[in-house]
């Protein structure tokens, strides 16, 4: 039967997580952060399997401190097929037609999406720009966490792309219930959030989780990823150029799984960033006007939202680069630009013309990024 692809790399972090679990020191609410495509959700699912495995701490008597789940017990087999009733995976999805969807509706939609990912050999690309963790999803998560585990002695919840959790007016009860769940999970419950844009998370969420950084994987792990049979088939004609693929991925194998829409989004984001960085002069203003006028002319609203997501990723990269070069002031300005961008991303949910929205966004970003 179809199962998840192996987890490649992250050995040091895996050992750290396994050791914390064995010592009873693993936090009940975790946040895994790192570059987009680096494998945060796959690592979270690995940790879920490790926590549910019934033999993890005894299967290899020759290892003083075994790290990996056994892979053969019933819990592991179900977890690898994403069929374990106590391993729950929530991630951004399109808004359900019923604005007040039930928990059953949400779980059915997620089960269908997970099935599609498994049919694709356990390989998936990033969520669409309009996908989100809507209020109905938060309600379903809280309701599910209130139930006793069905098969294991514990339950694990993986919440991918947690920065896309949408807070809506009138939904304070659902938001507060989720925050309470993060702060005081039921006994034996572990919540693992992932985010490529932790700065976009609500401060009330960040304050309730322990954050761990997931670094890019090394060349050897990337080579092992590229040798995987399903990955090789997915990449098709590109699979032979290993050196180019490793350079393109930059330690984030998920980037190689992006479809043409993901590539288009990155290209559009680079145009937006170039326009925002153009000088506050007539030629720079003209470039911003041109880029804004050409935005969304022939593209769906989802593609525009994807471009804004990619722009946020580029700004995060500039922050890391600025800090590496001790340019703290520019890093702060980029962080402020990300906060501004998040407010515009929320407005894509409304009936706003992309050209007008982009013109205002580029104007605001130019002011921030041009600061000395």
Topology:
Layout: H1 11-22, E1 29-33, H2 40-52, H3 74-80, E2 87-90, H4 103-119, H5 135-145, E3 155-159, H6 172-183, E4 189-195, H7 203-206, E5 210-213, H8 219-227, H9 229-235, H10 242-249, H11 260-277, H12 282-294, H13 301-324, H14 328-347, H15 354-369
Parallel strand pairs: 1-4, 1-5, 2-3, 3-4
Walk me through this protein's architecture.
51% of the residues lie in helices and 7% in strands. The protein contains 15 helices and 5 strands. It has helices spanning 11-22, 40-52, 74-80, 103-119, 135-145, 172-183, 203-206, 219-227, 229-235, 242-249, 260-277, 282-294, 301-324, 328-347, 354-369; strands at 29-33, 87-90, 155-159, 189-195, 210-213. It has a 5-stranded parallel β-sheet, sandwiched between helices. The longest helix has 24 residues, at 301-324.
Summarize the structure.
With 372 residues, the chain is an alpha/beta fold. The chain has 15 helices and five strands. The mean pLDDT is 86.
